[in-house]
Amino acid sequence: MAVVERGELGEPDGHYLQYSWNFFVFNYSLGLEWEQQMQKVTTFNTVERFWSMMLHTLPPSDIANGTDLYVFKDGIQPMWEDPKNENGGRWLINVPSLNEVNRYWEELLMLIVGNAWETEEESEEICGAVFQPRTRGVRLSLWTSNWQNKESIMRIGRRIKEVLEYPDRLFYQTVEEQRNLPKGQDFAGGIYSL
């Protein structure tokens, strides 16, 4: 099955995005391996397919605890061990209210798939976005490929705060910081913050 259907004259049926993206759902099940719990739902590379995915997915406010959503560039697996992620990190967005979670998720996805960055360097830095509902609160994150590219990482963080109109501090956590956290511990800081 083709990702993008073609019209009669072979013209694209839609407006192409700069990158193709994969949408994954992770359902926590005791006793299963991580890979068995992660399911790729669809791939999209047009604006129309993106909105189709959004309209046919439960809003984040209706997603059960233990079910995570991932939207990553095609070719990048939503795991720290992927070569594009292993030297990177993530901007952490703690959602202060469930009233905001749907808007924050939609705005974050439009930012990454719409490639609304100041420079190509920032665009290339982006790996994907994650939604994680937990009993202690909802967290969104935007994963990047190289934590040492501070200037670009900080521009990305400022853009997130601007687009989401996010009032609280954002923290950037490296993969190494993530790996060193005890299981279940919340993260309250990071190598960078805004």
Automatic annotation (TrEMBL):
Belongs to the eukaryotic initiation factor 4E family. PROSITE patterns: IF4E. One of its GO terms (biological process) is regulation of translation. It comes from Echinococcus multilocularis. This is Eukaryotic translation initiation factor 4E. One of its GO terms (molecular function) is translation initiation factor activity. Keywords: Initiation factor, Protein biosynthesis, RNA-binding, Translation regulation. InterPro entries: TIF_eIF4e-like, TIF_eIF_4E, TIF_eIF_4E_CS. The keyword Thylakoid does not apply. One of its GO terms (cellular component) is eukaryotic translation initiation factor 4F complex.
